[in-house]
Design goal:
The complex is a heterodimer of chains A (about 525) and B (about 325). Chain A has 16 helices and 22 strands. Chain A is an alpha+beta fold and about 525 residues long. Chain A has two domains: about 35-245 and about 505-525, D-Maltodextrin-Binding Protein, domain 2; about 285-500, Roll (Dipeptide-binding Protein, domain 3). In chain A, the strands form five sheets. In chain A, strands 2, 9, 10, 13, 14, 15, 16, 17, 18, 19 and 20 form an eleven-stranded mixed β-sheet that branches. In chain A, strands 1-5-6-8-7 form a five-stranded antiparallel β-sheet, sandwiched between helices. In chain A, strands 3-4 form a two-stranded antiparallel sheet. Chain B has two domains: about 1-75, no CATH class; about 85-305, MetI-like fold, CATH 1.10.3720. The chains are: A alpha+beta (about 525), B mainly alpha (about 325).
């Protein structure tokens, strides 16, 4: 029996994409200038570069310049082939065939084959942090050196969307590394840069991988995908966790690029000759969620009263020093799943409504414990303003401040002792769709419902977001899930935070993104 | 002498066991683990559970403690949760960096502290004395993280004399090492120099009023010999005691200073381990630092006997 297949990504599609960009193969990116050492000042100090086992942004900032995946997200978070040249799906939606990009070698000189892909997937299934994306997989095989086939138990329209998620990507490593435990692998990828030196708490040095074979599906870099080139000879990522020291290093020209310029430094840096500031408008969602298990937030009307009392403009102003957008959504504006469903409940700023709801709910001045950390200023300031607004509405709001690991662990493991927790959704909000909503669905259920199954209306919508046949169906389901989130107060999104990065003016081609990308970036002579 | 050293080393063993037990208790009493740090704010609980499985943190506490001590008696401090390398390897790789900066800082402390203290004592109740006392007061009062940032702004951003941070090994480039370690060493030294100034000043003032100093002066000895040979020799006892304290404070101060200047020493290793909840690294680091301080105390005790023949250690 022959299986009819449809091409979802491949050379024909690539040609169409090129045409839509108005580009031809000749227009593909070439480095206007080569050479030099690009120095990046990092906010985080990762201890590992084992990308399959870490979801933190600090790891991606470095590792995603070294590793590549079969399929990854582009600039607009659309799934895009990277190490795959062509992807076909059988008509029954059960079988996915990936034809690998030809001529790709690992940084150790070994050619990449489907055996390496298979071994990398096997490893991810064991130690990969988002391995739940593989729960629908029945089997995988490597019928020949350049083909990898995944067979699913049942059709899952969002399979490629999930597989391409760049939170903890299924990066491909040599088969001999793939048997190793989490954090134990040699950092050997197929990307345009290879690891030269890693000194934890100090720096990571990458150097150009001369044998790199770029993909041709897109004319230039887009997200983590596209036609990537190493224009500089080396990249030094310096771990400058102290913000003031990081800004000073940009000012003196010791580093070319810095992450996360605080609002307080913007005016001064903007006036420094040779420094430019770049803004990524939608970088992260400032968000919090109530604890449905602990009184009084086990009471729907108390939660609704909390939501009604909030003035998001005041909160976001204090949290971000004015660099924000109000956003009645769990998605960033302009993205595929963006919706304002339930948005009428956002930014109500109504003390009267809050008081009415509290009276209806029988609220009796029980303490509402706001759990937060001083280590992340945005979260702490959000909590401070929210406390004042809740108190103005007659809610006995109290702050509980811990360091970040303690606060997060308390919210995760304890069902008592806290009523509202503050966090950020950066990667998960940017990925969109089911990835954004997964935290509020069983078995994650970060809002701690008394019934572990969680809110049935939300769960029904979430299932549809995962399994809807078309993007329209999935987007409609997302809107429904978001509406339930607002109505039943599973979470409260406060607004969208921007991220400002600083660069020296001799840096060209650098585009702010959710993570730092050093491909297609060159230094002026 | 040998039996003194052996007995002090034997006394150190229960102290080390006690330190590791207290550390275990404190570490495990506070919530939060390495998984939440590796996972980042966006990680789902499901992803955090997977990270915990990868790190062995899903094992019951008693199993984790037993594993730690079994490995410890085999001479194995375990493997860092975040770095993925043996704790001992990390400590050995990082310690020369911190020791280098500590020695540099100690030299600065002694030079600045002794000379300022002597100047103050020799110019008692004059403006130099008051200026030195003010310096000492500022030195002990200013937090070193604040001082570090002010020094970065002054010497790196405004004057452009020294880099804002980073580290170049001495073996690779001695001048580069000096450039990258001067600000952190000075930031650490100023606090200690303030303390040393005060001790030197008060001890020297006391010594200068002694009869034997008056006799030396009456003999017509030049002032520099009176102070340099006769007075200073007796100031050295409290100074040696002080040096022991200074080194222990340099080790703890390096946690903050190394993080600010991006120096990959023991301080930043321990600082990261604590904020990352890297249990094996915290345990190993604490044992390492405690051992270093215990050995340092033994050396200081031995130095007393060398400096003051009146002191004889038991067993000599």
């Amino acid at each position: 029996m022959s299986i009819s297949k449809r091409l979802v990504f491949g050379t024909g599609l690539a040609a169409a994409m090129l045409a839509s960009f108005g580009a031809t193969a000749q227009d593909q990116f070439t480095c206007p200038n080569q050479g030099g050492d690009l120095i990046v000042g990092l906010e985080g100090a990762p201890g590992t570069l084992d990308q399959q086992t870490a979801t933190s942004s600090a790891v991606r900032n470095i590792a995603m310049n070294v590793f590549e995946a079969l399929i990854i997200r582009d600039e607009n978070m659309a799934p895009t082939p990277d190490l795959a040249d062509e992807i076909t799906v059988s008509d029954d939606g059960l079988s996915y065939t990936f034809k690998l990009r030809q001529g790709v070698t690992f940084h150790n000189g070994k050619p990449m084959t489907s055996a390496d892909v298979l071994a990398s997937f096997e490893r991810y299934k064991t130690v990969g942090v988002s391995r739940s994306i593989m729960t629908s997989v029945k089997s995988w095989e490597a019928p020949d050196a350049s083909t990898f086939v995944i067979t699913l138990n049942e059709a899952q329209p969002t399979f490629l969307e999930n597989l391409s998620s760049s939170t903890a990507p299924v990066v491909i490593m040599p088969a001999e590394e793939a048997g190793k435990a989490a954090g134990q692998v040699e950092i050997i990828g197929t990307g345009p840069f290879k690891l030269a030196e890693f000194v934890p708490d100090s720096h990571v040095k990458l150097e150009r991988f001369a044998e790199y074979v770029p993909g041709n599906a897109l004319p230039g870099l887009s997200g983590f995908a596209g036609h990537k080139q190493a224009c500089v000879d080396t990249v030094t990522f310096r771990m400058l966790t102290e913000t003031a020291a990081r800004m000073a290093a940009l000012e003196t020209g010791e580093v070319h690029i810095v992450e996360s310029v605080p609002a307080i430094s913007m005016e001064r840096l903007a006036a420094v000759e040779g420094v430019e500031l770049l803004t990524l408008d939608a970088f992260g969602l400032n968000i919090g969620y109530p604890n449905w298990s602990a009184p009084p937030t086990d009471n729907l009307q108390v939660r609704q009263a909390m939501l009604a009392a909030l003035n998001m403009e005041e909160i976001m102003e204090a949290a971000t020093d004015g660099v924000f957008q109000l956003n009645p959504s769990l998605q960033f504006p302009g993205t595929t799943y963006f919706s304002t469903a339930g948005g009428e409940l956002y930014n109500q700023n109504s003390i009267e409504r809050a008081k009415t709801l509290l009276a209806e709910g029988g609220y009796n001045n029980e303490p509402v414990v706001l759990l937060t950390t001083q280590q992340i200023t945005t979260m702490y300031n959000t909590a401070l303003v929210m406390q004042a607004q809740l108190q103005a509405a007659g809610i006995n709001a109290q702050l509980q401040v811990y360091d970040w690991p303690t606060a997060l662990a308390t919210s995760e493991k304890e069902t008592t002792g806290w009523n509202f927790f503050f966090t950020h959704w950066t990667g998960s909000a940017a990925q969109g769709g089911a990835t954004t909503l997964r935290n509020l669905a069983a078995p994650a259920n970060i809002y701690k419902p008394q019934d572990p199954a969680g809110d049935p209306a939300y769960n029904a919508a979430f299932q549809q977001v995962q399994n809807g046949a078309t993007i329209e169906e999935r987007a409609a389901a997302f809107a429904e899930a978001q509406k339930v989130t607002f109505e039943n107060v599973l979470a409260i999104p406060f607004g969208v935070m921007s991220n400002v990065q600083g660069i020296r003016s001799n840096v060209e081609g650098f585009k702010p993104f959710y993570n730092t990308r050093v491909s297609n970036v060159w230094l002026q002579p | 002498m040998i039996s003194f050293v052996v007995s002090r080393l034997l006394q150190a063993i229960p102290i080390l066991i006690l330190v590791s037990l207290i550390a275990f208790g404190i570490i495990y009493l506070i919530p939060g683990d390495a998984a939440v740090v590796i996972g980042g704010p966006s990680a789902t609980p499901e992803e955090l559970e997977q990270i915990r499985r990868n790190l062995g943190l899903d094992q019951p506490l008693h199993v984790q403690i037993a594993t730690f001590y079994i490995n410890l008696f085999k001479g194995d401090l375990g493997r860092s949760l975040t770095l993925g390398i043996p704790v001992m390897d990390a400590l050995i790789a990082r310690s020369p960096i911190t020791i280098g900066i500590a020695i540099y800082s100690l030299v600065l402390t002694i030079v600045i502290g002794l000379s300022t203290g002597m100047l103050a004592a020799l110019n008692h109740n004059r403006w130099i004395d008051q200026a030195a006392t003010l310096f000492a007061l500022l030195g002990v009062s200013l937090p070193n993280f604040w001082l570090s940032l002010v020094m970065i702004v002054l010497f790196s951003v405004m004057l452009g004399w020294l880099p804002t941070g980073g580290y170049i090994p001495f073996t690779q480039d001695p001048i580069g090492w000096l450039r990258t370690t001067t600000l952190p060493a000075a930031a650490l030294a100023l606090l200690q120099a303030g303390l040393l100034t005060r001790i030197t000043r008060s001890t020297l003032l006391e010594v200068l009023n002694q009869d034997y100093i008056r006799t030396a002066r009456a003999k017509g000895l030049p002032e520099w010999i009176v102070v340099g040979r006769h007075a200073l020799a007796n100031v050295m006892m409290p100074v040696v005691t002080m040096v022991g304290l200074v080194l222990s404070v340099l080790l703890s101060g390096s946690i903050v200073i190394e993080s600010i200047f991006g120096i990959p020493g023991i301080g930043s290793l321990l600082g990261s381990a604590i904020s990352n909840r890297d249990y094996p690294m915290i345990q190993g680091g604490l044992l390492f630092v405690t051992t270093a301080l215990l050995l340092l105390n033994i050396v200081i005790d031995l130095l007393y006997t060398a400096l003051d023949p009146r002191i004889r250690v038991k067993g000599r």
